[in-house]
Protein backbone atom coordinates (compact mmCIF):
# COMPACT_ATOMS: atom_id res chain seq x y z
CA UNK A 1 0.00 0.00 0.00
CA UNK A 2 1.35 3.42 -0.93
CA UNK A 3 2.30 5.52 2.09
CA UNK A 4 3.31 9.08 2.77
CA UNK A 5 5.32 10.31 5.73
CA UNK A 6 3.69 12.76 8.12
CA UNK A 7 4.94 14.39 11.29
CA UNK A 8 4.83 11.89 14.10
CA UNK A 9 4.64 8.71 11.99
CA UNK A 10 3.44 7.01 8.85
CA UNK A 11 0.11 7.57 7.15
CA UNK A 12 -1.32 4.85 4.92
CA UNK A 13 -2.88 6.32 1.81
CA UNK A 14 -5.26 3.40 1.26
CA UNK A 15 -6.54 3.49 4.83
CA UNK A 16 -6.97 7.25 4.60
CA UNK A 17 -8.91 7.01 1.33
CA UNK A 18 -11.24 4.38 2.79
CA UNK A 19 -11.81 6.43 5.94
CA UNK A 20 -12.68 9.52 3.89
CA UNK A 21 -15.36 7.46 2.13
CA UNK A 22 -16.55 5.89 5.40
CA UNK A 23 -16.89 9.31 7.03
CA UNK A 24 -19.04 10.55 4.16
CA UNK A 25 -21.17 7.39 4.37
CA UNK A 26 -21.82 7.88 8.07
CA UNK A 27 -22.75 11.53 7.57
CA UNK A 28 -25.24 10.41 4.90
CA UNK A 29 -26.94 8.32 7.57
CA UNK A 30 -28.31 11.37 9.39
CA UNK A 31 -30.43 12.73 6.51
CA UNK A 32 -31.34 9.09 5.79
CA UNK A 33 -32.54 8.86 9.38
CA UNK A 34 -34.51 12.05 8.80
CA UNK A 35 -36.25 10.41 5.86
CA UNK A 36 -36.91 7.24 7.86
CA UNK A 37 -38.32 9.19 10.80
CA UNK A 38 -40.32 11.59 8.61
CA UNK A 39 -42.21 8.75 6.99
CA UNK A 40 -43.20 7.36 10.37
CA UNK A 41 -44.98 10.51 11.59
CA UNK A 42 -48.15 12.26 10.45
CA UNK A 43 -47.80 14.44 7.37
CA UNK A 44 -48.23 17.70 9.30
CA UNK A 45 -45.00 16.96 11.19
CA UNK A 46 -42.88 15.72 8.28
CA UNK A 47 -40.57 18.72 7.91
CA UNK A 48 -40.13 19.28 11.62
CA UNK A 49 -39.15 15.65 12.14
CA UNK A 50 -36.58 15.87 9.35
CA UNK A 51 -35.36 19.22 10.65
CA UNK A 52 -34.60 17.73 14.05
CA UNK A 53 -32.05 15.53 12.29
CA UNK A 54 -30.71 18.50 10.33
CA UNK A 55 -30.49 20.48 13.55
CA UNK A 56 -28.54 17.64 15.16
CA UNK A 57 -25.93 17.94 12.40
CA UNK A 58 -25.49 21.62 13.17
CA UNK A 59 -25.26 21.52 16.94
CA UNK A 60 -23.47 18.20 17.43
CA UNK A 61 -20.78 18.99 14.85
CA UNK A 62 -20.01 22.27 16.61
CA UNK A 63 -20.04 20.88 20.14
CA UNK A 64 -17.89 17.96 19.01
CA UNK A 65 -15.25 20.32 17.59
CA UNK A 66 -15.30 22.65 20.57
CA UNK A 67 -15.24 20.24 23.48
CA UNK A 68 -16.97 16.89 22.84
CA UNK A 69 -14.11 15.23 20.97
CA UNK A 70 -11.62 16.22 23.64
CA UNK A 71 -13.80 14.88 26.46
CA UNK A 72 -14.19 11.61 24.57
CA UNK A 73 -10.63 11.02 23.34
CA UNK A 74 -8.12 13.10 25.30
CA UNK A 75 -6.29 11.19 28.00
CA UNK A 76 -7.08 7.89 29.66
CA UNK A 77 -8.93 8.93 32.82
CA UNK A 78 -11.58 6.41 33.72
CA UNK A 79 -14.71 8.61 33.68
CA UNK A 80 -14.12 11.55 31.31
CA UNK A 81 -11.36 12.79 29.06
CA UNK A 82 -9.43 16.03 29.33
CA UNK A 83 -9.45 19.31 27.44
CA UNK A 84 -6.20 18.90 25.53
CA UNK A 85 -8.06 18.65 22.22
CA UNK A 86 -10.67 21.34 22.99
CA UNK A 87 -11.13 23.71 20.06
CA UNK A 88 -9.23 21.07 18.01
CA UNK A 89 -6.01 21.61 19.90
CA UNK A 90 -3.25 19.32 18.60
CA UNK A 91 -5.62 17.79 16.05
CA UNK A 92 -3.82 17.98 12.72
CA UNK A 93 -2.40 15.92 9.87
CA UNK A 94 -0.12 13.67 11.91
CA UNK A 95 -1.49 10.15 12.50
CA UNK A 96 -3.82 9.60 15.40
CA UNK A 97 -2.13 7.28 17.94
CA UNK A 98 -2.83 3.66 17.06
CA UNK A 99 -4.02 4.42 13.52
CA UNK A 100 -2.53 5.06 10.10
CA UNK A 101 -4.87 7.94 9.27
CA UNK A 102 -4.58 11.68 10.00
CA UNK A 103 -5.78 12.75 13.43
CA UNK A 104 -8.06 15.29 11.76
CA UNK A 105 -9.78 12.52 9.80
CA UNK A 106 -10.16 10.41 12.95
CA UNK A 107 -11.85 13.43 14.56
CA UNK A 108 -14.23 13.87 11.60
CA UNK A 109 -15.19 10.19 11.47
CA UNK A 110 -15.95 10.09 15.19
CA UNK A 111 -17.87 13.34 14.84
CA UNK A 112 -20.33 11.77 12.42
CA UNK A 113 -21.11 9.18 15.10
CA UNK A 114 -21.91 11.91 17.61
CA UNK A 115 -24.14 13.62 15.04
CA UNK A 116 -26.32 10.62 14.19
CA UNK A 117 -26.59 9.51 17.81
CA UNK A 118 -27.88 12.92 18.82
CA UNK A 119 -30.39 12.79 15.96
CA UNK A 120 -31.57 9.33 17.00
CA UNK A 121 -32.86 10.60 20.34
CA UNK A 122 -35.27 12.95 18.56
CA UNK A 123 -37.35 9.94 17.54
CA UNK A 124 -38.70 9.72 21.08
CA UNK A 125 -40.17 13.24 21.16
CA UNK A 126 -41.21 14.10 17.60
CA UNK A 127 -44.64 15.63 16.97
CA UNK A 128 -44.69 17.58 20.25
CA UNK A 129 -41.26 18.85 21.41
CA UNK A 130 -40.49 22.48 20.51
CA UNK A 131 -37.67 22.93 18.03
CA UNK A 132 -35.66 25.52 19.99
CA UNK A 133 -35.52 23.54 23.24
CA UNK A 134 -34.64 20.43 21.25
CA UNK A 135 -31.57 22.15 19.78
CA UNK A 136 -30.44 23.23 23.24
CA UNK A 137 -31.02 19.72 24.56
CA UNK A 138 -29.12 18.21 21.60
CA UNK A 139 -26.09 20.42 22.21
CA UNK A 140 -25.94 19.58 25.91
CA UNK A 141 -26.71 15.88 25.40
CA UNK A 142 -23.93 15.47 22.85
CA UNK A 143 -21.43 16.58 25.52
CA UNK A 144 -22.90 15.29 28.78
CA UNK A 145 -24.06 11.89 27.55
CA UNK A 146 -22.53 10.93 24.21
CA UNK A 147 -18.99 12.18 24.84
CA UNK A 148 -18.88 10.50 28.25
CA UNK A 149 -20.08 7.14 26.92
CA UNK A 150 -17.69 7.37 23.96
CA UNK A 151 -14.83 7.90 26.41
CA UNK A 152 -15.91 4.90 28.46
CA UNK A 153 -15.99 2.59 25.46
CA UNK A 154 -13.39 3.97 23.01
CA UNK A 155 -11.32 6.71 24.63
CA UNK A 156 -9.51 4.80 27.37
CA UNK A 157 -12.34 4.97 29.90
CA UNK A 158 -13.29 2.39 32.48
CA UNK A 159 -15.35 0.10 30.25
CA UNK A 160 -12.53 -0.21 27.76
CA UNK A 161 -10.03 -0.68 30.60
CA UNK A 162 -12.04 -3.53 32.16
CA UNK A 163 -12.18 -5.36 28.84
CA UNK A 164 -15.51 -4.47 27.25
CA UNK A 165 -15.46 -5.07 23.50
CA UNK A 166 -17.44 -2.64 21.37
CA UNK A 167 -16.44 -2.46 17.74
CA UNK A 168 -18.52 0.41 16.39
CA UNK A 169 -20.72 1.95 19.06
CA UNK A 170 -23.02 -0.41 20.91
CA UNK A 171 -22.34 1.58 24.09
CA UNK A 172 -22.41 5.29 23.12
CA UNK A 173 -24.50 5.12 19.94
CA UNK A 174 -27.05 2.35 20.35
CA UNK A 175 -27.65 1.85 24.06
CA UNK A 176 -26.84 5.52 24.65
CA UNK A 177 -29.56 6.73 22.27
CA UNK A 178 -32.10 4.02 23.10
CA UNK A 179 -32.22 4.51 26.85
CA UNK A 180 -31.91 8.29 26.53
CA UNK A 181 -34.95 8.15 24.26
CA UNK A 182 -36.93 6.39 26.97
CA UNK A 183 -36.03 9.09 29.48
CA UNK A 184 -36.93 11.83 26.98
CA UNK A 185 -40.32 10.28 26.27
CA UNK A 186 -41.13 10.11 29.99
CA UNK A 187 -40.12 13.70 30.68
CA UNK A 188 -41.70 15.34 27.63
CA UNK A 189 -44.85 13.24 27.90
CA UNK A 190 -47.18 11.63 25.42
CA UNK A 191 -48.78 13.28 22.42
CA UNK A 192 -52.24 14.59 23.16
CA UNK A 193 -53.90 12.00 20.90
CA UNK A 194 -51.79 9.07 22.08
CA UNK A 195 -53.99 6.17 23.11
CA UNK A 196 -57.13 7.88 21.82
CA UNK A 197 -56.69 7.48 18.09
CA UNK A 198 -54.41 5.69 15.67
CA UNK A 199 -51.25 7.73 15.02
CA UNK A 200 -50.12 6.05 11.82
CA UNK A 201 -47.07 6.51 9.58
CA UNK A 202 -47.99 8.72 6.65
CA UNK A 203 -45.47 7.51 4.05
CA UNK A 204 -44.17 3.94 4.07
CA UNK A 205 -42.02 4.62 1.01
CA UNK A 206 -40.04 7.27 2.91
CA UNK A 207 -39.52 4.74 5.68
CA UNK A 208 -38.27 2.03 3.33
CA UNK A 209 -36.02 4.42 1.41
CA UNK A 210 -34.62 5.84 4.63
CA UNK A 211 -33.94 2.33 5.96
CA UNK A 212 -32.19 1.36 2.73
CA UNK A 213 -29.97 4.43 2.83
CA UNK A 214 -29.20 3.80 6.49
CA UNK A 215 -28.12 0.24 5.68
CA UNK A 216 -25.94 1.61 2.88
CA UNK A 217 -24.33 4.12 5.25
CA UNK A 218 -23.85 1.43 7.88
CA UNK A 219 -21.16 -0.20 5.74
CA UNK A 220 -19.10 2.91 6.44
CA UNK A 221 -20.26 3.03 10.06
CA UNK A 222 -19.12 -0.52 10.85
CA UNK A 223 -16.55 -1.08 8.12
CA UNK A 224 -14.84 2.19 8.94
CA UNK A 225 -14.55 1.37 12.63
CA UNK A 226 -11.53 -0.80 11.92
CA UNK A 227 -9.74 2.35 10.67
CA UNK A 228 -7.94 0.30 8.02
CA UNK A 229 -8.57 -1.63 4.84
CA UNK A 230 -7.48 -4.74 6.72
CA UNK A 231 -9.17 -7.83 8.11
CA UNK A 232 -11.22 -6.24 10.89
CA UNK A 233 -12.88 -3.81 8.52
CA UNK A 234 -13.53 -6.54 5.95
CA UNK A 235 -15.11 -8.75 8.63
CA UNK A 236 -17.33 -5.93 9.95
CA UNK A 237 -18.29 -4.94 6.40
CA UNK A 238 -19.34 -8.50 5.54
CA UNK A 239 -21.23 -8.98 8.80
CA UNK A 240 -23.12 -5.75 8.11
CA UNK A 241 -24.53 -7.46 5.04
CA UNK A 242 -25.43 -10.74 6.72
CA UNK A 243 -26.94 -9.78 10.08
CA UNK A 244 -29.64 -7.38 8.81
CA UNK A 245 -30.60 -9.85 6.08
CA UNK A 246 -31.18 -12.56 8.69
CA UNK A 247 -33.07 -10.13 10.92
CA UNK A 248 -35.27 -9.21 7.98
CA UNK A 249 -36.17 -12.85 7.29
CA UNK A 250 -36.87 -13.48 10.96
CA UNK A 251 -39.10 -10.40 11.14
CA UNK A 252 -41.05 -11.70 8.14
CA UNK A 253 -41.72 -14.94 10.01
CA UNK A 254 -42.73 -13.10 13.19
CA UNK A 255 -45.07 -10.80 11.24
CA UNK A 256 -46.68 -13.76 9.49
CA UNK A 257 -47.15 -15.63 12.76
CA UNK A 258 -48.72 -12.60 14.41
CA UNK A 259 -50.78 -10.96 11.65
CA UNK A 260 -50.50 -13.21 8.58
CA UNK A 261 -49.07 -10.20 6.75
CA UNK A 262 -45.57 -8.89 6.14
CA UNK A 263 -45.58 -5.14 6.69
CA UNK A 264 -43.32 -2.59 5.02
CA UNK A 265 -42.86 -0.69 8.27
CA UNK A 266 -41.87 -3.92 9.96
CA UNK A 267 -39.38 -4.71 7.21
CA UNK A 268 -37.74 -1.29 7.53
CA UNK A 269 -37.59 -1.65 11.29
CA UNK A 270 -35.99 -5.08 10.92
CA UNK A 271 -33.21 -3.65 8.75
CA UNK A 272 -32.39 -1.10 11.43
CA UNK A 273 -32.51 -3.69 14.22
CA UNK A 274 -30.11 -5.96 12.33
CA UNK A 275 -27.69 -3.13 11.62
CA UNK A 276 -27.78 -2.05 15.25
CA UNK A 277 -27.28 -5.58 16.54
CA UNK A 278 -24.09 -6.10 14.54
CA UNK A 279 -22.70 -2.63 15.34
CA UNK A 280 -20.88 -3.61 18.55
CA UNK A 281 -20.07 -7.14 17.34
CA UNK A 282 -19.10 -6.59 13.71
CA UNK A 283 -15.34 -7.04 14.02
CA UNK A 284 -15.41 -9.63 16.81
CA UNK A 285 -17.62 -12.53 15.61
CA UNK A 286 -17.53 -14.83 12.61
CA UNK A 287 -19.94 -14.40 9.67
CA UNK A 288 -21.91 -17.49 10.68
CA UNK A 289 -22.39 -16.18 14.20
CA UNK A 290 -23.33 -12.81 12.67
CA UNK A 291 -26.16 -14.58 10.87
CA UNK A 292 -27.26 -16.21 14.13
CA UNK A 293 -27.21 -12.79 15.78
CA UNK A 294 -29.53 -11.55 13.06
CA UNK A 295 -32.11 -14.11 14.16
CA UNK A 296 -31.55 -13.65 17.88
CA UNK A 297 -31.72 -9.84 17.91
CA UNK A 298 -35.06 -9.80 16.11
CA UNK A 299 -36.91 -11.60 18.90
CA UNK A 300 -36.58 -9.20 21.88
CA UNK A 301 -36.84 -6.15 19.63
CA UNK A 302 -40.01 -7.41 17.96
CA UNK A 303 -41.46 -8.12 21.39
CA UNK A 304 -40.75 -4.59 22.63
CA UNK A 305 -42.01 -2.94 19.42
CA UNK A 306 -45.34 -4.77 19.66
CA UNK A 307 -45.67 -4.37 23.44
CA UNK A 308 -44.77 -0.69 23.84
CA UNK A 309 -47.92 0.78 22.17
CA UNK A 310 -50.01 -0.99 24.81
CA UNK A 311 -48.30 1.04 27.52
CA UNK A 312 -48.67 4.70 28.43
CA UNK A 313 -45.11 5.46 27.30
CA UNK A 314 -45.26 7.37 24.02
CA UNK A 315 -41.71 6.69 22.86
CA UNK A 316 -42.83 7.66 19.42
CA UNK A 317 -40.54 5.91 16.94
CA UNK A 318 -39.36 2.99 19.10
CA UNK A 319 -35.76 4.12 19.54
CA UNK A 320 -35.59 2.05 22.73
CA UNK A 321 -36.46 -1.18 20.92
CA UNK A 322 -34.59 -0.64 17.67
CA UNK A 323 -31.44 0.82 19.24
CA UNK A 324 -31.37 0.30 23.00
CA UNK A 325 -32.53 -3.33 23.09
CA UNK A 326 -30.78 -4.29 19.85
CA UNK A 327 -27.52 -2.66 20.98
CA UNK A 328 -27.69 -4.42 24.33
CA UNK A 329 -28.28 -7.75 22.58
CA UNK A 330 -25.24 -7.22 20.36
CA UNK A 331 -23.03 -6.25 23.30
CA UNK A 332 -23.97 -9.38 25.28
CA UNK A 333 -23.72 -11.62 22.21
CA UNK A 334 -20.03 -10.68 21.90
CA UNK A 335 -19.43 -12.14 25.34
CA UNK A 336 -20.90 -15.44 24.19
CA UNK A 337 -19.38 -16.02 20.76
CA UNK A 338 -16.39 -13.70 20.22
CA UNK A 339 -13.66 -15.77 18.55
CA UNK A 340 -10.00 -14.82 18.71
CA UNK A 341 -9.43 -16.80 15.54
CA UNK A 342 -11.52 -14.21 13.71
CA UNK A 343 -10.84 -11.05 15.71
CA UNK A 344 -7.34 -11.57 17.07
CA UNK A 345 -8.43 -10.02 20.37
CA UNK A 346 -10.50 -12.25 22.65
CA UNK A 347 -12.76 -15.29 22.96
CA UNK A 348 -16.26 -15.39 24.38
CA UNK A 349 -17.91 -17.89 26.71
CA UNK A 350 -18.47 -20.56 24.05
CA UNK A 351 -14.78 -20.42 23.15
CA UNK A 352 -13.53 -20.70 26.70
CA UNK A 353 -13.51 -17.21 28.27
CA UNK A 354 -16.36 -16.61 30.70
CA UNK A 355 -14.71 -13.40 31.85
CA UNK A 356 -15.47 -11.72 28.54
CA UNK A 357 -19.18 -12.27 29.07
CA UNK A 358 -18.86 -10.62 32.48
CA UNK A 359 -17.21 -7.56 30.93
CA UNK A 360 -19.97 -7.29 28.34
CA UNK A 361 -22.70 -7.59 30.97
CA UNK A 362 -21.16 -4.75 32.98
CA UNK A 363 -21.47 -2.49 29.92
CA UNK A 364 -25.03 -3.69 29.29
CA UNK A 365 -26.01 -2.52 32.78
CA UNK A 366 -23.91 0.61 33.30
CA UNK A 367 -24.66 2.26 29.95
CA UNK A 368 -28.47 2.26 30.24
CA UNK A 369 -28.28 3.51 33.83
CA UNK A 370 -26.07 6.47 32.91
CA UNK A 371 -27.82 7.34 29.63
CA UNK A 372 -31.30 7.21 31.15
CA UNK A 373 -30.34 8.98 34.37
CA UNK A 374 -28.36 11.83 32.85
CA UNK A 375 -30.92 12.45 30.10
CA UNK A 376 -33.74 12.48 32.61
CA UNK A 377 -31.98 15.01 34.83
CA UNK A 378 -30.93 17.16 31.87
CA UNK A 379 -34.47 17.42 30.51
CA UNK A 380 -35.95 18.07 33.94
CA UNK A 381 -33.57 21.00 34.39
CA UNK A 382 -34.30 22.35 30.91
CA UNK A 383 -38.03 21.91 31.52
CA UNK A 384 -37.75 24.07 34.63
CA UNK A 385 -36.18 26.84 32.52
CA UNK A 386 -38.37 26.68 29.41
CA UNK A 387 -41.40 24.82 28.06
CA UNK A 388 -40.21 21.69 26.28
CA UNK A 389 -43.34 20.91 24.30
CA UNK A 390 -45.80 22.81 22.20
CA UNK A 391 -49.36 23.57 23.18
CA UNK A 392 -52.36 21.44 22.22
CA UNK A 393 -53.01 23.98 19.49
CA UNK A 394 -49.48 23.54 18.14
CA UNK A 395 -49.90 19.78 18.04
CA UNK A 396 -53.26 20.07 16.31
CA UNK A 397 -51.91 22.38 13.60
CA UNK A 398 -48.65 20.48 13.21
CA UNK A 399 -45.06 21.33 14.03
CA UNK A 400 -44.17 22.08 10.40
CA UNK A 401 -46.26 25.24 10.25
CA UNK A 402 -45.70 26.24 13.86
CA UNK A 403 -41.90 26.03 13.87
CA UNK A 404 -40.89 26.38 10.23
CA UNK A 405 -43.74 28.17 8.45
CA UNK A 406 -43.66 25.53 5.73
CA UNK A 407 -45.40 22.31 4.74
CA UNK A 408 -44.08 19.11 3.26
CA UNK A 409 -47.19 18.82 1.09
CA UNK A 410 -49.28 21.68 -0.27
CA UNK A 411 -52.45 19.79 0.48
CA UNK A 412 -51.26 18.37 3.80
CA UNK A 413 -52.89 18.48 7.21
CA UNK A 414 -51.48 21.92 7.91
CA UNK A 415 -52.97 23.60 4.81
CA UNK A 416 -55.38 25.52 7.03
CA UNK A 417 -53.84 27.27 10.01
CA UNK A 418 -56.13 28.77 12.60
CA UNK A 419 -54.53 31.07 15.11
CA UNK A 420 -57.09 31.61 17.88
CA UNK A 421 -56.02 35.02 19.02
CA UNK A 422 -58.27 37.44 20.85
CA UNK A 423 -57.78 41.17 20.15
CA UNK A 424 -57.64 43.60 23.06
CA UNK A 425 -61.29 44.60 22.50
CA UNK A 426 -62.40 40.98 23.08
CA UNK A 427 -63.91 40.62 19.61
CA UNK A 428 -63.69 37.31 17.82
CA UNK A 429 -60.92 37.02 15.24
CA UNK A 430 -61.47 35.63 11.75
CA UNK A 431 -59.31 32.51 11.14
CA UNK A 432 -56.31 33.05 8.88
CA UNK A 433 -55.57 30.88 5.91
CA UNK A 434 -51.91 30.14 5.30
From TrEMBL:
The keyword Transport applies. The chain crosses the membrane at residues 17-38, 50-72, 104-126, 133-155, 167-188, 200-221, 233-254, 261-282, 288-307, 319-338, 358-379. The keyword Transmembrane helix applies. Keywords: Ammonia transport, Membrane, Transmembrane, Transmembrane helix, Transport. InterPro entries: Ammonium/urea_transptr (IPR029020), Ammonium_transpt (IPR001905), Ammonium_transpt_CS (IPR018047), NH4_transpt_AmtB-like_dom (IPR024041). Its main location: membrane. It is found in: Cell membrane; Membrane. This is Ammonium transporter.
Amino acid sequence: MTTVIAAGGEINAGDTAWMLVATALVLLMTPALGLFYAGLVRSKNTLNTFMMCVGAIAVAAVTWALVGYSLAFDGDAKIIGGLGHAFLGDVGFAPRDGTTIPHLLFFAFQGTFCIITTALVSGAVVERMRFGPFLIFAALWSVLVYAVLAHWAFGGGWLQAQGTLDFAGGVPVEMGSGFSALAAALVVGARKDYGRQALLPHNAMYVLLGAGLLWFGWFGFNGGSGFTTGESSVLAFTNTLLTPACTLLTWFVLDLARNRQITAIGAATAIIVGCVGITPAGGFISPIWAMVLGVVVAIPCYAVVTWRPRTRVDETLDVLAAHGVAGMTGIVFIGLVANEGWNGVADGLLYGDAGQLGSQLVAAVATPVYAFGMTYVLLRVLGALMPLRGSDHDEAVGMDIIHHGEEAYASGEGAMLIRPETPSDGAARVPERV
